[in-house]
């Protein structure tokens, strides 16, 4: 049936969908990649933070011994600035990861149409469909799979750290904190890698669902093609009007011609020669009915018509209206014009004439 959506969406449909925010993308990709980037940046950030904290702690005893509000505020301000500079690379990295992840999944675009209220979004039946449809089943499966994978990652990580914690009493505090810190970073990285794999699967599912929602029927494709390229009937009418206007312009210039070279019946080419403007120029040409109209106007305006079969065909085929004749036709056209001038000298130019020196067959 023509109403079945079996066709892939056109570029125009995809462009409109992007403008409306209907893009197949997974929000999890940015989150998990951001977590992985954070796990890489976090040790450096914590290290800098601890160094700055240690420097500030060394100043506190002096402040306690000699209290001063100005110095205390300076220490507090320095602590805030140190924390901000330490966290800034991590924040910029997370922001860059989010932008890149969004751009890689279809570009970054503000869909203003999503801010326009639509009552169809409040339809309870549509809400039930989303809650119990295939999309809801996939979201439920995804949540369950996340829980299982993260549980396995946590179990494997804790399996390595528990024996160390059991002997924590025999380790210095710094060593114990280092072990816990390494285990936490390892846990975050393992969870992030597993999350990225799940997010990639989610991306392909969401993209496939979006592409399916954007499918079009054959009738929609035809209609869009008409809207984009123009209705063939209207385009044909426009072309017909353009051709009619071009014919009318040519017909208006026929009375200004010096000679009409004819075939004698099927082809007619009107030439005008103005020495101060260069070579002879084509002012009108045509075949069939167009040639008949040119001959009719030539008769009405007493323009000489000269039969030269080879020249008429060559000019009609190789020259455009308004164009000067090419150099290869100079000699043949010059003979025709000289013949017309001799007729005018005798007062017998008007009417139909045969060229006494017809042009040999030419391209």
UniProtKB/TrEMBL annotation:
Gene Ontology cellular-component annotations: plasma membrane
GO biological process: protein secretion
Transmembrane feature ranges: 83-104, 143-166, 186-206
Organism taxonomic ancestry: Bacteria, Bacillati, Actinomycetota, Actinomycetes, Micromonosporales
Coiled-coil zones: none
PANTHER family per the UniProt record, alphabetical: FLAGELLAR BIOSYNTHETIC PROTEIN FLHB
Keyword Cytoplasm applies: no
Region annotation (Disordered) ranges: 1-22
Keyword vocabulary terms for this entry: Cell projection, Cilium, Flagellum, Membrane, Transmembrane, Transmembrane helix
Superkingdom, natural source: Bacteria
Comp. bias regions, Basic and acidic residues: 1-10
Protein name per Swiss-Prot or TrEMBL: Flagellar biosynthetic protein FlhB
Keyword Membrane: yes
InterPro entries found in the cross-reference section: T3SS_substrate_exporter (IPR006135), T3SS_substrate_exporter_C (IPR029025)
Matches recorded under SUPFAM superfamilies: EscU C-terminal domain-like (SSF160544)
Organism: Actinoplanes italicus
């Amino acid at each position: 049936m023509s109403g079945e959506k079996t066709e892939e969406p056109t570029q125009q449909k995809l462009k409109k969908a992007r403008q409306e925010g209907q893009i197949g993308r997974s929000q999890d990709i940015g989150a998990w990649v951001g977590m992985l980037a954070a796990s890489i940046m976090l040790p450096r950030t914590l290290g800098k933070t601890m160094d700055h904290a240690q420097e500030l702690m060394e100043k506190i005893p002096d402040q306690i011994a000699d209290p001063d509000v100005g110095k205390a505020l300076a220490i507090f301000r320095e602590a805030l600035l140190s924390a901000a500079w330490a966290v800034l690379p991590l924040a910029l990295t997370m922001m860059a990861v989010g932008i890149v992840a969004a751009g890689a999944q279809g570009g970054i675009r503000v869909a203003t149409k999503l801010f326009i209220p639509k009552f169809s979004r409040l339809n309870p039946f549509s809400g039930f469909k989303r809650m119990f449809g295939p999309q809801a089943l996939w979201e439920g499966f995804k949540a369950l799979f996340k829980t299982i994978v993260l549980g396995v990652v946590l179990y494997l990580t804790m399996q390595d750290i528990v024996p160390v914690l059991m002997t924590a009493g025999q380790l210095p505090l710094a060593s114990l904190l280092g072990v816990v810190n390494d285990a936490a970073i390892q846990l975050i990285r393992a969870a992030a890698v597993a999350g990225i794999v799940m997010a990639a699967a989610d991306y392909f599912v969401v993209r496939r669902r979006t592409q399916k929602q954007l499918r079009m029927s054959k009738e929609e494709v035809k209609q869009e093609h008409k809207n984009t390229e123009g209705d063939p009937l209207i385009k044909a009418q426009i072309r017909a009007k353009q051709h009619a206007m071009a014919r009318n312009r040519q017909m208006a210039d026929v009375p200004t011609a010096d000679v009409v070279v004819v075939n004698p019946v099927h082809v007619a080419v009107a030439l005008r020669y103005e020495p101060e403007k260069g070579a002879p120029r084509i002012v009108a040409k045509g075949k069939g009915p167009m040639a008949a109209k040119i001959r009719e106007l030539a008769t009405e305006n007493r323009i000489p018509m000269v039969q030269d079969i080879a020249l008429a065909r060559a000019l009609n085929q190789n020259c455009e209206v308004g164009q000067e004749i090419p150099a290869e036709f100079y000699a043949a056209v010059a003979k025709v014009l000289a013949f017309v001038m001799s007729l005018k000298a005798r007062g017998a130019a008007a009417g139909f004439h045969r060229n006494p020196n017809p042009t040999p067959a030419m391209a």
